[in-house]
Amino acid sequence: MSRDTDVLVLGGAGVDTIVYVPELPLPYADSYMIDSGIRTRAGQTGDFVAVGLSSLGLRTHHVDFLGEDPEGDLVRALHREHGIALTAIPQPAGTKRAVNLVGPDGRRLSLYDTSRGHAGDRLPEQTVRALADASRHAHVSITQPCAHALPLLREAGVTLSTDLHNWDGGNSYHESFAHAADVVFLSTAALDDPERTMRRIAEKGRAEVVVATAGAEGAYLLTDGELSHVPPVRPPAPVVDSNGAGDAFAAAFLYGRLTGEPPHRCALYGAVAGAHACTVPSTRTAPMGRDELIERAATFEGS
Prior knowledge:
Elements: E1 5-10, E2 15-20, E3 38-42, H1 45-55, E4 60-66, H2 70-81, E5 85-90, E6 97-102, E7 108-112, H3 125-133, E8 135-140, H4 144-156, E9 159-163, H5 175-180, E10 183-187, H6 194-204, E11 209-213, E12 219-223, E13 226-230, H7 245-258, H8 263-277, H9 290-300
Parallel strand pairs: 1-4, 1-8, 2-6, 4-5, 8-9, 9-10, 10-11
Antiparallel strand pairs: 2-3, 6-7, 11-12, 12-13
Helix pairs in contact: 1-7, 3-4, 7-8, 8-9
């Protein structure tokens, strides 16, 4: 069977409105003057992963619901600009959107508009099967329509990855994703005991690799039953925004995995790409290219 796509990205398409605020949490006030401007741009988790993968030379296809609205047009334009194939399923409720408040240290608070979907939303089975049959790997966002696509992806025989983001280790909604994926990413932000959660994912599911990112502390890698620490990588410029860092990490890790690199080098690729993402304002889309990633990773190899 011909696999013309390296990575099929499911879900996570939408727009964010970026507001740089003087501090987080933001104290109550009647109003704030935002001198840097308030900007809306395309790019939620699936978009960022797709852009990151494509910039590293992987043939990428993205499928999700989009509205026939200005926000949907922004998402379509982002994919056109980066040469990424996009299958947009019509969404009468409109394109997903969020507001990100970003503090001076790059941390963010995201406000998600949950009205842009319905409990019965499903990615068309025939579409998912056809795209999966043409793909080597699928990266699945933790949206409700994607949960229903997991069995179809498994039947197609593609390997799977997912990002549980700031899962607390207890919310049962995330478990179907955690247990179906071969590679699981998550953040340590809401975890009391990251190692325990990572080992539980590996024991209860099919994950060969579990990666927990820890911001400035680096990341933790669980593979073959061994837990190791991935040191943080020094950003190449001042940190301005953490938005998209986890998506950049996931894209670079998957690039390494799909090109045959061992898990520890994949994690190094992820750390390098995540650090780079923290130097790029949310209002811009500037992922690392393949040559830059490999060259910069080489400077940290063995350090």
